[in-house]
């Protein structure tokens, strides 16, 4: 039976995908399990967005639907060509709300330099869906000279993150639950094309990229480690987490490494290029808090953390419910 | 406020799309309002499928999700490159049912000679969606020598349909409502690539194609007439409708011209090529009941019917509720 955890991006999602999708639909593009399916010189991706509430500090369902799909394209190095958007709307939704969501999609698409070139709308009776779901698909052109994928990761590579972790998940959860926590909690949802363009334009040899959405940074690094068949070792103290987010996580018993992001990329590249990459990222507002957080080592594929006290702790693949409907 | 009719494919859908999507998202590919958005040499399309029940005579949600998207690609003359599928699943859905749906998608994709190269799964809590929704997107390569679009329609062109009308809508409705009607009612849901390939391979000069889904043949012909800025005149007696479907429509007060199809194409081409096209279509099982049903005339854009008694009746754009959740 389908349980909430099947959609949480962790171990259960992984098992569901492996057993119930990859096997019956098997083909190389799908089985590569990248952020986009790559066919010839094209990258294709799709994501259904069911976030609740639909408006939250820092963003909304519309911005999320465009940014999430753009980020899946740029994470495989593709240059976006066009997006499609399919709306499932519940009878009774206010047209004013639809207008706000579509305006937000339009603005986010402009920000990412891409257009929504096809769409579809279905309406279901009251009670058959919760307000509005948007599924966005995207197509991009692959650049043969810039094809990051986990299999290219080398021992000794540096692991970067383009900014602070856990902003999106904590902001949506606090908004949903009406929690009044200290400091400003805002989703980081943003299209990251500009960051990837900066790395590509500098001819950096990016070995892998991934956007740490559901399941958070930990799940993302796990998947990179599996693809690389190597070990990712993080320095806990190097991981950027904004103070209010850290405080909220402590209060709520959440580990920021497992909380969803919607405006961040994990980047793996040669250690010798890491400082230059961080400088390029920091030159962009969306990458202002970029940091080197770890490195790739030989060993059993997996992910571990060097704690502030110098101990080593293995990370587990995300499991359980996490935060449902976070994206 | 969103009402059921906004998703029915008729006048209300048209107004919703014009005012609330085309305006804020404006760009040439979207505004062309073809079955797929065309960008450079690529066609892109997306459709959300929310049909209920998910299994019905002749098909299921999975087959519908693949066929619907393939048909939107081939209707603009594109050769499918790849599909993406995004699942929104309700907590509690049986995994056995998911497996049946995915197996059906895989089989239908094989039938259409295309693969599902990317996917996504979201799970929402019980009550937040009705069972399972699948959004399928597709990308195809446009053939510069075969680019049907309504603006190419000429006065005197013949209008063909590739088979009987209204099978899908009547079958789903009868199944949903538990109606025991005479004869076999089966959905026509099928990927129509083979039919379009037959026309292309014969170098026929196809001026326009469209698949008459929501809103039925009438809505589809209306859109062709608008795009052509001409009049489509149908001969009522030439329109193929299977006897049990005709009987069911009479009983239920439905006009088969307004009922959804999922395995048919309307084709407009020069009158001189019409007989050859019908012969080519009839040589395929999916086109066995292909027929010439009308022609294009000069005049106010619109659609009219020459009745069995020789009278002329203007068709109206579909409006109102029609059949919700038919696809």
Features:
2 domains, 31% helix, 9 helices, 60s Ribosomal Protein L30, Chain: A, 5-stranded mixed β-sheet, 7-stranded mixed β-sheet, homodimer, alpha+beta, globular, 327 residues
Question: Overview of this structure, please?
Answer:
- The structure is a homodimer of 327-residue chains.
- Chain A has helices at residues 11-22, 28-31, 61-75, 95-112, 167-177, 193-201, 216-228, 243-252, 274-282, and strands at 37-39, 42-49, 55-56, 59-60, 79-90, 116-124, 132-141, 158-161, 208-210, 231-235, 266-269, 291-297, 302-306, 312-314.
- The first copy, chain A, is of the alpha+beta class.
- Chain A has two domains: 35-142, 2-Layer Sandwich (60s Ribosomal Protein L30, Chain: A); 150-315, PurM-like C-terminal domain (Phosphoribosyl-aminoimidazole Synthetase, Chain A, domain 2, Alpha-Beta Complex).
- In chain A, strand 5, helix 4 and strand 6 form a beta-alpha-beta unit.
- The radius of gyration of chain A is 19 Å and the shape is globular.
- The first copy, chain A, is built from nine helices and 14 strands.
- In chain A, the strands form three sheets. A seven-stranded mixed beta sheet of chain A has the order 9-11-8-12-10-13-14. In chain A, strands 1-2-7-5-6 form a five-stranded mixed beta sheet, with helices on one face.
- The two termini of chain A are 22 Å apart.
- At the A-B interface, helix 1, strand 1, strand 2, strand 5 and helix 4 of A face helix 1, strand 1, strand 2, strand 5 and helix 4 of B.
